[in-house]
Each structure stands twice: as C-alpha cells, then as structure tokens.
Q: What sequence folds into this?
C-alpha cells in the first residue's frame, strides 16, 4: 500500500466513524429539547424543564441524570427511581420521546433536536406497553421521532367534512402543512397518519381495529364496543369505569406493529368526532396519554372517575 | 507459588490467625471505594510481604493481575451505561448498545482493578506465608474427609506436573514426537491408575473408618493475638472510616488528607504485628 492509499484509507475510516456518530468528547448538542417527569399516566407533574441541562450528544438517560435525582440498576440501563419515586410492584418508570414509546433503553437512545422526553411512572398491570401517547402534541408531527421526520397525512372518512377541515386548521395554526387524503390512501407510504371520522368508518385501518381490542393490545385506556357506537372508558387496571354512547369522542394514538404511530380523532358518531376535534389541541392534550370527550367534558385516560 | 518457612511474625503465627489477617485485607479492599486508599492498601500488602521475606514473590504476582486489571477497566468502560462525562463516542455497538466511554466508568474500572490487585497480592502472600498443611489440619475438625481430599489433591498437583514434564521429555526423544493430546492422555491414564492405588492405600490404613479428631490444644502466641487483633482493626477501619468517594453519576470525592489518613491508619493496623519479632527463629 502506497502512502497515498494509506492516507485515503485513514480519511475514509475517519469519515465513516464520524458519520456513525463516533468521536472524541461529548459531541454535538441537540437543541429545543424538553423534559417532563410525571406520575400516574400524567396525573401529577414531578418535574418539568422546558430547557433541561444537556452536555453534548447526551442520551435520554444521561439527560435525565443531569436534571433529576436518579438511581439506576442493571449497569445504569434501567431507571430505579426519579426524585426518590421508585418503581415498585407493578408500577415502573416508562419514557416516551415525542409521544412514542422507545424501542430501546434510555441509555441507548440518543437525543435529537426538538425531542420532548416524557418519563411517567405508572401501573403496567393492564398494559405492559403503551406504544404511543398524545400528550406531547404537536410532537411527533413537528420533529418526528428517533431523529426521523415523516410527512403528516390527515386521512378522513369524508375529506370535505368540517371535522377534517378543523383538524387541518389546527395543524396550520402550528405552521404544519398536512396532506389530506382518503382513508388508507397512504397505507404504503411511510407517514404520520391522523385518522378522522366516526370509528365505525375507520375499521378498515389495521391500527383502528386495536381500539376495539383490550388495552394490552392498543395501549389506549378506552375501547369501542357495539360496532363503534359505544365507547368504554377504562381505569388504570383496565376495568370499565363508564360507557358512553352517542356524542362521545376520542383522541388517541397507537401503533400497528413497527409502523409509525397512528393518531385517531374519532368518536361514536359524527357528533363524537366533532367533540374530539374540539379537544384536538395542545392545551387539552398536554400531559395526557389519551383524551376522551363525554358530554363536552375532556376526560384524561385512564379514567379516574368512580 | 508454594509455602516456604521463613523467619517472620506472619510465618510464626498459627495458620488460622494468618488466614484471618489475609481475609481482613481482602475484606478491606471490598469495603473501600477510595482509589488512594486502595493504592495504599496495595503498598501495605507489598510491605507486609516484604516483612515476611516474600516481597519479590508477591511483587511478581502483580504482573499476573496487570492484564486482568486492564481487561476489567476496558470491559467496565464499554459495558457500563453510567457516568456523565463522555470522553469518546464509539457509536452503536449492536448488542452492547450505545458505546460511550465515560470518565466515571473508567475511574470505577480502575477502582475495581485495584481491588483485584489487592486480592491477587494477598492470595500470593497467603500461599507464601501460611502453611497449607496447618490450614488443612485446622479444617479436619470441620470436615475430615474434605480436608483429607484437599490434602491429597494438593499433593497430587505437583506430581502431575512432574509426570507431564517427564512424559513430554520422553516424547521429544522420539523421531516423530506426538502432540500435547497424547501427553494429556498418558497423564490422565497415570492419574486414574494412581487414584486407585491411593484409594486402596487409604482403605488399608483405615482412613474410611476415621472419626473426627480431638481438638489439639495449643496456647495462643503473641503473634496469633497480634494478627487477630490486626485483622479486626483492619476491617473496623475499612468499614467505619468515613472516607467518601463515589463514581456515579459524576466523580465525587477528593484526594485529601482524610484519604491519606485512612490509608495510613489501615497500613498502621496491618503492619503493626510485624514490629513484634521476639521469639522468631532466624
């Protein structure tokens, strides 16, 4: 190998390592990251930092350790307690980045610009996995998830309906351009779909079928019954607390297999969809896993009513 | 490394007191997290070995612990997710996850390596300064057959090594020497034959019907008492001395006079019995 070849090989190796995120020191720092720590499915805020301390290319775990009193186990890969609130029994700490449950441990998840990191200690006896939550809205539509930006697609049962237009307007108010399309029209395109329409008309979407199944499958503490004409609200243990009929709406998110999260602005009928559209804004959804609307009242899920 | 009788207080002490002393040194290493105190503990063990006349032999054991120590530092740096001061980012390591080398993980690895160095050095000191036969004799009352088995096994190991050397020499004299496997096979066959002989001899001599031996009364010497007291003092100092040093999430602690005093106190407690040389034959 000549000297020039050796130099080329060295430069190529250095470039490959740099592209793979390798290097000396702490690395580049992501911006506009926020941290929220809550308890009981977002019911109580433990810590909220819109601009937490970050040093270089931190992981989710390292950022948490810099900003809260954290104890870990399993070589620093598992959060045992945050601010002296420890996981015990069937309650543990879970985290969501831009409203999406992470596939990897917090020590292996790198932060990206615009990430909203949400740690929540909750009871997992009813659902061990909650694939997506709505409480980080307008994420993941603004900054994507896992460092990946995906196009926003509003899929409506009736694209000309007022509900569809209102959802589009809500995104427009946060300067997001959405594509309007018919239901399942973007099935083969990787996008972030928001399904709008009465639940009975959405069931051709595989992710929608989960909303009629158990909470362990959907991660949503509500389920549609009676062909989508009734909405059962569940408590933390997955028990039905109340059942709503006509006019009930739901804003929730779930994932079908490894696909991007699917959001639902839906209801038992058109009035229910209209009610859900009213709740589809950052103020109402903030810090909640999902929101049901019954009798014009927004109810955070899981339902805590007796 | 094997036991050699020397004129030293540790050699003069009974095996149980000397073993207690060595166990206390190892316990102190586990209880201590301050790297300076651990370094001073390593120096203390070397000084104790020097006082026993086996300093060079124990010093050589440090070469054995060096590669293991380096491996501990490397593995801890790669596997541990803790620590906030990132020194290098090695990217996604597949099953190992995100490989970030942190200062804290490196420092903790060094601390673990120092603990290992102490353990290896103390083990070398124990094997050089504690009579293994006396240790086994003291075990006889607890488990007669285990002590007998251990005694025979320890006697057989050098014999097997001698066999291997002898058979290896014989193999090399052949025009086409056979490999290590053939030597191993021959040694194994020899060992099995010998085990039958040993078993038959033990049977003939009545070892099978042996009972638990009576306690052999032997008054405590000043060396026994000194090393036992030293062991208690070492463990007490290691456990109770408030020298704070933590590694995660950030290194917290300092190399100050308190740490020096802690290491010094441990050294004093560990080396004090060696000042008593009265009654030691040269």
A:
């Amino acid at each position: 190998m000549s000297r020039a070849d050796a130099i080329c090989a060295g430069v190529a190796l250095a470039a490959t390592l740099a592209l793979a995120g390798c290097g000396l020191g702490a690395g580049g720092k992501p911006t506009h990251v926020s941290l929220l720590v809550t308890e009981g499915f977002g019911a109580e805020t433990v810590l909220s930092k819109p601009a937490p301390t970050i040093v270089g290319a931190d992981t989710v775990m390292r950022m948490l350790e810099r900003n809260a009193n954290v104890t870990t186990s399993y070589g620093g890969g598992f959060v045992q307690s945050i601010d002296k609130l420890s996981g015990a029994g069937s309650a543990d700490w879970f985290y969501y980045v831009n409203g999406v449950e992470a596939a990897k441990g917090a020590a292996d998840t790198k932060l990206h610009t615009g990430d909203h990191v949400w740690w929540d200690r909750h009871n997992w006896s009813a659902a061990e996995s909650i694939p997506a939550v709505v409480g980080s809205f307008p994420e993941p539509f603004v900054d994507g998830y896992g460092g990946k930006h995906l196009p926003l697609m509003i899929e409506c049962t009736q694209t000309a309906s007022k509900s569809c237009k209102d959802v589009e307007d809500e995104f427009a108010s946060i300067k997001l351009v959405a594509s309007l399309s018919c239901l399942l029209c973007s099935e083969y395109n990787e996008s972030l779909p928001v399904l709008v329409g009465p639940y009975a008309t959405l069931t051709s979407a595989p992710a929608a079928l989960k909303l009629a199944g158990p909470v362990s499958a959907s991660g949503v503490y509500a389920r549609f019954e009676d062909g989508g004409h009734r909405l059962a609200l569940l408590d933390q243990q997955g028990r039905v607390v109340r059942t709503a009929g006509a006019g009930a709406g739901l804003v929730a998110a779930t994932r079908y297999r490894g696909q991007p999260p699917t959001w639902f602005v839906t209801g038992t009928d058109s009035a229910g969809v209209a009610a859900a559209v009213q709740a589809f804004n950052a103020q109402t959804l903030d810090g909640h896993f999902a929101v049901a609307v019954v009798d014009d009242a927004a109810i955070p899920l899981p339902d805590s009513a007796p | 490394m094997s036991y050699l009788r020397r004129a030293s207080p540790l050699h003069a002490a009974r095996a149980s007191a000397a073993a207690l002393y060595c166990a206390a040194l190892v316990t102190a290493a586990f209880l201590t997290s301050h790297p300076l105190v651990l370094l001073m503990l390593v120096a203390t063990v070397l000084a104790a070995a020097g006082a026993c006349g086996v300093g060079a032999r124990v010093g050589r054991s440090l070469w054995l612990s060096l590669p293991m120590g380096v491996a501990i530092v490397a593995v801890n740096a790669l596997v541990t997710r803790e620590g906030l001061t990132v020194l290098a980012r090695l990217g996604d390591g597949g099953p190992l996850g995100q490989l970030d080398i942190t200062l804290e993980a490196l420092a903790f690895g060094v601390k673990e390596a120092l603990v290992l160095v102490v353990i290896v050095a103390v083990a070398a000191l124990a094997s050089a300064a504690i009579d293994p036969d006396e240790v086994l004799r003291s075990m006889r009352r607890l488990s007669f057959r285990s002590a007998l088995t251990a005694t025979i096994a320890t006697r057989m190991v050098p014999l097997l090594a001698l066999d291997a050397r002898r058979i290896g020499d014989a193999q090399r004299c052949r025009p086409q020497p056979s490999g290590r496997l053939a030597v191993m096979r021959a040694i194994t066959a020899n060992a099995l034959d010998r085990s039958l002989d040993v078993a038959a001899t033990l049977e003939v001599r009545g070892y099978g019907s042996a009972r638990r031996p009576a306690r052999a009364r032997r008054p405590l010497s000043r060396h026994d008492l000194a090393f036992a007291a030293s062991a208690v003092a070492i463990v007490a100092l290691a456990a109770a001395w408030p020298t704070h040093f933590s590694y995660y999430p950030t290194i917290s602690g300092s190399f100050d006079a308190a740490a020096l005093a802690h290491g010094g106190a441990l050294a004093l407690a560990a080396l004090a019995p060696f000042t008593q040389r009265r009654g030691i034959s040269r």
In short: The CA atoms of residues 194 and 278 of chain B lie 45 Å apart. Chain B is about 65% helix and 5% strand. Chain B has two domains: 9-133+222-275, 142-209. The first strand of chain B starts at residue 86 and ends at 92.
